[in-house]
Design goal:
Two copies of one chain form a homodimer.
Chain A: H1 3-21, H2 33-40, H3 54-81, H4 86-100, H5 102-112, H6 117-142, H7 146-168, H8 172-201
Helix pairs in contact in A: 1-2, 3-4, 3-5, 3-6, 4-5, 4-7, 4-8, 5-6, 5-7, 6-7, 7-8
The structure holds a DNA duplex.
DNA sequence: AGTTTCAGCGTACAACTGTACGCTTAATTT
DNA sequence: AAATTAAGCGTACAGTTGTACGCTGAAACT
């Protein structure tokens, strides 16, 4: 087999192993190089052929997670084209994602408040993509000035991530409850930003 | 000296040592019993005279942190008696607290999304106190039905904690900016919940 | 065909971990 | 005064960690 392909394949095995280890009771900072190697089926020292550091692996995972989320956003936007509530569809898409990719979302959540400033910054960057895309949407579709649109988008993303954290610990029926409450709370923000804007103009 | 007092004193040394170690780069799950003992100035094995487990220490820290936050709430409510914006005063009190007790808030943040289900539950309980007290306030002062008041309070607390997380990584001037944005975003929710309620009635 | 490259392995080591066990010593009880 | 209690210590041990070093064997190149 091609050597390059082979290398990429084991690299993927490492990434997959890391995501597998990132379960309910293990944060990325807490997993050891040796555990990852064991799970990936390689020698501990072979790890270094792919990543200089365990941190480099971590940042890769955050990047991949962010990418997955952005792809999700696109999918949600496509669904909205066909009509329906923007908020409700977005929330359901999001909840579907985190229940199907628990460890991906867990990684983002944990490293967002984690112990590595580098990781925190990486996650915040991914969240900012989220916020800015939503901000653009709000600005153009709801006809709000940029600053208000941005605050609205930021608040919404905060709520969504926070509710997502709760959803991770809940069974499917509880997730549905959380989603429904979240939808109403997002409407609060939407309505509130609008009336704040109206009041400001007069 | 009294033996009981002496014991309580070293116990406090352990607690203080743990909070000291809980700095920017160290989560509670990541600190070792030996580190705590070293910082507290006792032998590693002496730790067990005070806590059965390192987890027992952790839950103690969460409890103490929650207590500190509840005391803060009372202080904020007292200040509000004298008049002024409820939201603005609460936000400023909160920000003052987390900048003066960084590690206390850090503990709550990290364990909220941490790897121990027990710790997560403990933190969520503390957050719920927050939410419920605020919910009662909203219900009685803004004349909203209980369910809407609760959703409003929950959303507000989510926003406050999320903004608090950002504030931890920021310098004083950035904290001020975050606080001001947060105040507006909380107004969004307040206004939004009100018009959601109005609309619902008709 | 001969040479070079390099992914992966095995061994090795020092550092650190939690905690079992028994001792000391001073406060407390009898 | 004698006996008991218990906070704190020191030693010890097995387990895990990251990573330095040199080797192997097959793919890639000349």
């Amino acid at each position: 087999m091609n050597r390059q392909q082979q290398k990429l394949q084991t690299r993927q095995k490492i990434v997959d192993a890391a995501f597998t280890l990132l379960d309910e009771n293990k944060s990325f900072t807490a997993i050891s190089l040796r555990e990852v190697a064991r799970e990936a089926g390689i020698a501990p020292t072979s790890f270094y052929r792919h990543f200089a550091d365990i941190n480099e692996l971590g940042l890769t995972l955050v990047d991949e997670s962010g990418l997955a989320l952005r792809q999700l956003m696109r999918k949600a936007r496509q669904r909205i084209q066909k009509g329906g509530s923007v908020i409700a569809i977005s929330v359901h898409t999001f909840m579907e994602f985190i229940t199907k990719n628990r460890n991906v979302f867990r990684l983002l959540l944990r490293e967002h408040t984690g112990t590595s400033a580098e990781f925190r910054a990486a996650v915040m960057r991914e969240i900012q993509y989220f916020t800015e895309e939503l901000s653009d949407y709000v600005e153009s579709h709801l006809q709000l000035p940029a600053d208000i649109a941005h605050m609205q988008a930021e608040a919404m993303v905060r709520l969504v991530f926070s509710a997502g954290a709760d959803a991770l610990d809940s069974d499917p029926t509880a997730v549905e409850t959380i989603a429904n409450r979240l939808i109403i709370q997002l409407r609060f923000i939407q309505l509130g930003a609008f009336s704040y804007h109206q009041r400001d103009k007069s």
